[in-house]
Amino acid sequence: MPAIATTHSLNDYLKLPISRYREQLKQGNAKYIEVSYTHRNKPYQYSIQLTKTSCHYGGYRYWWLCPQCSKRVSVLYCAGLYVCRHCINAPYGSQLQQPIDRVFSRISEIRVRLGWQQGVIHGVGAKPRYMHSKTFDRLVNEHDKLSAQVWQQTLDKLNCTH
Fold this sequence. Notes:
Blueprint: H1 3-6, E1 15-17, H2 22-26, E2 32-39, E3 42-54, E4 60-65, E5 72-73, E6 75-79, E7 81-83, H3 85-88, H4 99-114, H5 133-161
Antiparallel strand pairs: 1-6, 2-3, 3-4, 4-5, 6-7
């Protein structure tokens, strides 16, 4: 199996965003958050240290301090203990995409933005209401260019196999 198929991405781990504790953090000046959970039938209970930074618009923003490396992060991932993405050394899901998958993802994003039916096979639709004509033209041109790229790669593969 290719290494890319056996690599775990961050999508494979449970996330613990600091925003989950927003209401609790508004109550006072917290230095730690107590967590308790079970992972693979093993119970865990410990405190995760917090830090905060001042915002330009006033108030504070809270951050986790990774229990393993003490980096300031907004999301921890469960690998037994909750740790930062650097400690589990897992790439983002998009970093595991093949070049053709990136093209399909971008085509899909454009079709969603334009309100068109998903899939390259389906034709183009009308300009969405309230979208500027220049934006619509730019997105349609990008869509057409990427679709042509997909069709060309498909034809190239077919020609190579025959």
